[in-house]
Design a protein that fits this description.
The protein is of the alpha/beta class and 205 residues long. It has a single domain, classed as Rossmann fold (3-Layer(aba) Sandwich). Helices cover 25% and strands 25% of the residues. The protein is built from five helices and nine strands. The strands form two sheets. Strands 5-6-7-3-8 form a five-stranded parallel sheet, sandwiched between helices. A four-stranded antiparallel sheet has the order 4-1-2-9, with helices on one face. β1 and β2 form a beta hairpin. The structure holds adenosine-5'-triphosphate. Adenosine-5'-triphosphate is lined by residues 12-13, 17, 35, 37-43, 205.
Amino acid sequence: MDLKVSDLSVARGGRTLLETVGFRVAAGRALALRGPNGIGKTSLLRVLAGLQPPRTGRVDPGPDAIAYAAHADGIKPSLTVAENLRFWARVFGGPDISTALEAYALAPLASRPAAYLSAGQKRRLGLARLLVTNRPVWVLDEPTVSLDRDAVALFAESVRQHLSQGGLAVIATHVDLGLDAETLDITPFRPARPRIDPGFDEAFA
Ligand SMILES: Nc1ncnc2c1ncn2[C@@H]1O[C@H](COP(=O)(O)OP(=O)(O)OP(=O)(O)O)[C@@H](O)[C@H]1O
């Protein structure tokens, strides 16, 4: 399955950030989104994931094919690491959690409540969640923030595995992830003149 984005306009807080965004990511490929702070990378990813509507344009396939991982990873603090993963596996109809635990070296932490995890451990749990979603399109916002070098390597290996199984990934990042990814700088999609759209109903902002 390929991801096709066409003629997308992205707004945040009533302001159009990006216009006529278009790209295609083939199955088995990763795309790294680049651009300066505040350009609209997170906002674009939120549109891809269906968390906010585009002003114009299309994303194919829709949110049901997409697993999104961002800063607030939807981790339930009172559940343990294993319980969090089992919960998501049930919600998404995904596989057994053992692969996810192993991929992010989380087995020693399996019975620890998520509330007690360090920032990097939380991030590993949020990324491990992708592996129990069974979804082909990964949309990742700064996935390596808080990760140490070993964890970045685990992440890169996990993405490689996903791609080798026919998945694809769109990753907003400021760092080189060591992946064989194409790069798209979204700066040219900034509107030439500022556009305010006070009437635009930005649901789920
Ligand atoms: N809820 C919101 N309401 C209004 N404006 C917002 C909201 N969230 C973000 N913005 C603004 O929208 C613009 C784009 O933000 P976004 O987070 O998409 O940028 P980014 O490219 O991901 O930045 P960074 O590289 O710093 O993560 C910024 O100017 C930001 O201040």
